[in-house]
Design brief:
Radius of gyration: 18 Å
Distance between the termini: 31 Å
Number of strands: 0
Number of helices: 10
Order of helices and strands: HHHHHHHHHH
Number of domains: 2
Structural class: mainly alpha
Oligomer: single chain
Strand content: under 5%
C-alpha cells in the first residue's frame, strides 16, 4: 500500500526540532565564532566555528535520530573551507565560505526548478506545508535570495576590514534571512495546505 502503513493510516512525518532549539543550534556556532574572534583571532575563531557546527550535527542526531540536510551541507562546507583556512593560514578562504554555501543552495534550487523537483522541501525539512504552486514560487524567491547573499558577502569581504566582515557574518546574514523569511508569510498562508500533526512531541 503506497503512502500508508498496514493499518491504512498515513505515516507520521519525521520528527522536527523545537523552533527554539533549532534557532539556538543555528546561532550557537556563530556566537562562538564571534566570541573567539573578539578574544583571539580569525584562525582560532575558524576552529571554534568548525567545532560548533559539528556539535550541532551531533545534537540534531541525538534528538532526531537523523541529520537534516541543510545543517549537514553547511557543516561540510564549513569544515572544508575552515580546514583550508587553517592549513594555508589564509583568512580569505573562510571569508569566501558563505559565498560558496549560498551559491550552492541557490544553484541547487535553480536545478530543482529545471528538473521539476521540490528541493526546497528538503532544505526546509518539513517546516512548511504549502501546495505545489507555493513551493514553486518560494523556490524562485529563495534561490535568488541565496544568490543575493553570495554577492553581498563578496562585496563586504572584498571592500571592508576583517573586523567588519566578522560582525556582518555574525549579526547581518541571520537577521536578513529572518526578515526575508517573514516576508514570505503572506504567500505561505495563501498556499498553505492542511496536514496531520506528526506523532510525538518535538524536543
Amino acid at each position: 500500500m503506497t503512502g500508508s502503513n498496514a493499518t491504512g493510516t498515513a505515516p507520521a512525518r519525521p520528527k522536527a526540532l523545537n523552533p527554539i532549539v533549532k534557532l539556538l543550534l543555528e546561532l550557537g556556532p556563530l556566537a562562538l565564532f564571534f566570541a573567539a574572534y573578539s578574544r583571539f583571532d580569525i584562525y582560532v575563531a575558524t576552529g571554534v566555528l568548525m567545532a560548533g557546527v559539528l556539535v550541532t550535527l551531533v545534537v540534531s542526531y541525538v534528538v532526531l535520530k537523523r541529520i537534516p540536510i541543510m545543517p549537514l551541507v553547511t557543516a561540510v562546507i564549513v569544515v572544508i573551507f575552515g580546514s583550508l583556512t587553517l592549513f594555508f593560514h589564509d583568512e580569505t578562504l573562510i571569508k569566501i565560505k558563505p559565498t560558496a554555501l549560498y551559491l550552492l543552495f541557490g544553484a541547487t534550487l535553480f536545478a530543482g526548478l529545471w528538473l521539476n523537483r521540490p528541493f526546497l522541501k528538503i532544505l526546509f525539512d518539513g517546516a512548511l506545508h504549502v501546495d505545489e504552486e507555493g513551493w514553486r514560487i518560494l523556490t524562485w524567491r529563495w534561490a535568488w535570495f541565496f544568490i543575493a547573499l553570495a554577492v553581498l558577502n563578496e562585496v563586504i569581504w572584498r571592500s571592508q576590514t576583517t573586523d567588519l566582515w566578522v560582525k556582518f557574518k555574525t549579526f547581518g546574514f541571520m537577521p536578513l534571512t529572518l526578515v526575508f523569511a517573514l516576508a514570505q508569510a503572506p504567500l505561505i498562508m495563501k498556499h498553505e495546505t492542511k496536514e496531520a500533526e506528526p506523532a510525538g512531541d518535538d524536543f
